[in-house]
Amino acid sequence: MIPLTFTLLVYGGWLLSQGPSAAFANFLAQISVALTMLVGSFVAGGTALGGGAVAFPVMTKLLAIEPATAKVFSLAIQSFGMTAAALTIIFCSIRYYSDVVWRALLGAVPGVLIGLMFIAEHLPRLTTKTVFSLFLLLFALTLLRLHFTHKGYKESSQLVKPYLITVVGFFGGIASGLVGSGADIMVFALMVLFYKKELKAATATSVLIMAVTSIIGSVCNAFYLDSITPEVTAYLLAAIPVVVVGAPLGAYVCARVKSGTLLSFLLLLIVLEVGFTALEWIK
Questions:
Q1: 160 lies in which domain range?
Q2: Does residue 184 contact residue 210 with C-beta atoms inside 8 Å?
Q3: InterPro entries from the xrefs (predicted)?
């Protein structure tokens, strides 16, 4: 009931803030961004990749949008989509690790603020893209390792060296401030490779971490850095009605589907994204 209420409130606010005619006109004008987030929100809700994992490479490489704009948009749209997915996880009793969530956020929250306020503006455009590609490679290697070696494992019931979660969350938060994603990917990798946590519960945990990280980052962008430009706003208003449905749907479906098909799809996305970045370096 709570996830549905959230979605209805978002739709009501979306229509009232613009008026039905303007809302649909902007949606059609920014249809490429909306379609991108149709896929991105599903991936964000059901995997340890944030919506930025789809939005950032598509916007920067196919739609020719500046990385700084794509990063601000990625954080902002995840504030809606991943919050909707997080509510679905919590209120539909999808398993997650609450102790990992709060430990990771102790690092991720200051990390994303540091990344946004002190580091992002000093990184060149291609460097920003490369950082994102490296995080996707980390995620791909994690998935492949799990696929070939994770069968028949026994889940660890204890958090050895729990401070590692906060440390990894901190550096993941910095990455989130640079490219719109990172805290979810890094904590997910730590959970399944080091702590031997169950894959689907670790995925749900990463969604909760990125939801909060995205909200904090977006508040900083809006009220401190003043980086929510009219361009970003237009993209957001086109994508919001898509992501508040797509992300919860992704969380629900991917908690119940076999992992093989999803793994292949994610690896395809990662190969394409890293390949495009490599081509830019060659040029």
A1: 2-282
A2: yes
A3: TM_pro_TauE-like
